[in-house]
Every structure is written in C-alpha cells, then in structure tokens.
C-alpha cells in the first residue's frame, strides 16, 4: 500500500462499518455521532491481560464520559463469548462494564482497521491464526483519526495515557497550544509556534519565553497556581 493511500493515517476519516456489539448492532459513524471515540482491540476473550485491561477501562468510563468520549472494544470472538467474558471481567475487577464490545469473529473489522499482525509470531492462536493486536484509535467528532497505537500481546496498555492524549488533543483544538513531554492536565502548556509574541501577549498573558521557539503558558481554563 502506498503511504498516501493508507486510510488509517492520522488525519484520515475513520472507516465506517456495521457490527454486532454487546450493546446491540451499530453503524460506526452513527455511533460516533458528536462524540470522541476510543476504538480499541485486544487479542481474545478470556485472556489474562485483556481481562485486566477491560476492568481498567470500565473503571475509567466516567472519566471518558466527562470528556465526551465513548469507548468501544473489539475482539475476534462472537457475542455469546463476549457476554460470558464480561461476567468474569465484572467479577474479577469489581466493575460493571457498560461499554460495547464488537463481536468480530470473522475478523472483518479487525482487517479493515489493520488490527491483525501476521508478522508478530508471539500473537497466534492455537491454529496459528493471528490474534488481533492491542490497537487503539482515538477518533474525533469529525470522524478523523487523531491517534493510533499498537501494543504487543504481552503488555497491557496504560489507559491513563490514552486519557492524557484526549486531554491534550481537546485542549489543542480549543486553544493555540501544544503540550510538552509528560504533560498532564493542569500543567503548563506550550504556546503554538504559529502564535506571534504580540498575539501571545493577548492570548496567554504572562507567558514565559525560554527560547524564541519555546514559550510556556498556564493551561487555558485553569487558574494560576497559588502558593
Ligand atoms: C493476554 O491477554 O493475556 C494475552 C493474549 C494473547 C497472547 C498473550 C497474552
């Protein structure tokens, strides 16, 4: 595939699809509606790392909802298997999982979203068929892909990091800022390089210049720290 034809690049419109989920059938673009969406896949139902991950996402769901983010999982198993597994996830993690999980037994959607890694020999089922990898897509309300991640089967993801990226993207969409390494909500932000010093004086009063190309400002919408 030529790089500019890859439909899953950042800035592409997330491919639409119809699917059965544990919360009923969906058409993906209708499901997105006016929300942000985190679409994430995991290798298979009833696997240990995945069981912990889905528990973490269920616990974080109120934080995603506060940010107008819907979460939706996917694994290449059928609906009945998903529903049985959710009982285990709830029991093991002491949660009440409320988001949909796509049933993708025929791997149609995981193929559409390039979630099957045929080259990763650590991620094969008993028949030698690749599992879905731990993919993450952050999709905005315009249905544009804003982040993609691919983790190995052996490593559970850090969903606080996914939340942190949502915060950074949403803040950057509203304000002419970027966020530095290890930034978290409430920390100082970076004035976008396209903002002149004259504009910055109005937009970010008291901004600090470390280098002409590196200017910090208080995160918009938060009060300056009091001592
Ligand atoms: C897991 O979720 O624990 C897992 C899934 C597939 C391969 C290895 C680990």
Automatic annotation (TrEMBL):
What InterPro entries does the database record attribute to this sequence? AhpC/TSA, Peroxiredoxin_AhpC-typ, Peroxiredoxin_C, PRX_1cys, Thioredoxin-like_sf, Thioredoxin_domain
Catalytic-site annotation from UniProt: 50
Naming one, the record's GO cellular component terms include: mitochondrion
Q: What keywords would UniProt list here?
A: Antioxidant, Oxidoreductase, Peroxidase, Redox-active center
Looking up SUPFAM superfamilies in the UniProt record yields: Thioredoxin-like
Where would I find the Thioredoxin domain in this sequence?
Answer: 8-171
A GO biological process of this protein is: cell redox homeostasis
Write down the superkingdom of origin.
Answer: Eukaryota
Gene Ontology MF terms in the entry: peroxiredoxin activity
The record's similarity note reads: Belongs to the peroxiredoxin family. Prx6 subfamily.
Q: What does this protein do?
A: Thiol-specific peroxidase that catalyzes the reduction of hydrogen peroxide and organic hydroperoxides to water and alcohols, respectively.
Entry protein name: Thioredoxin domain-containing protein
Organism phylogeny: Eukaryota, Fungi, Fungi incertae sedis, Mucoromycota, Mortierellomycotina
């Amino acid at each position: 595939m030529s790089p500019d034809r890859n439909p899953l690049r950042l800035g592409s419109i997330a491919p639409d699809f119809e699917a059965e989920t544990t919360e009923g059938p969906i058409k993906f673009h209708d499901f997105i509606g006016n929300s942000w969406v985190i679409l994430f896949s995991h290798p298979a139902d009833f696997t240990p790392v995945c069981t912990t991950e889905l528990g973490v996402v269920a616990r974080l769901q109120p934080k995603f909802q506060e940010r107008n983010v819907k979460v939706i999982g996917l694994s290449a198993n059928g609906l009945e298997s998903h529903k049985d597994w959710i009982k285990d996830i709830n029991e093991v993690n002491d949660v009440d999982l409320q988001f949909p999980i796509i049933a993708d037994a025929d791997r149609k959607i995981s193929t559409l979203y390039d979630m099957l890694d045929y080259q990763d020999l650590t991620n094969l089922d008993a028949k030698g068929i690749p599992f879905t990898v731990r993919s993450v897509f952050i999709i905005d309300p315009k249905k544009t892909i804003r982040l993609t991640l691919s983790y190995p089967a052996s490593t559970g993801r850090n969903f606080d990091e996914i939340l942190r990226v949502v915060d950074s993207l949403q803040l950057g969409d509203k304000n002419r800022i970027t966020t530095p390494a290890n930034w978290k909500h409430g920390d100082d932000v970076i004035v976008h390089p396209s903002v002149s010093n004259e504009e910055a004086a109005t937009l970010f009063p008291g901004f600090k210049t470390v280098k002409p190309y590196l200017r910090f400002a208080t995160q918009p919408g938060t009060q300056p720290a009091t001592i």
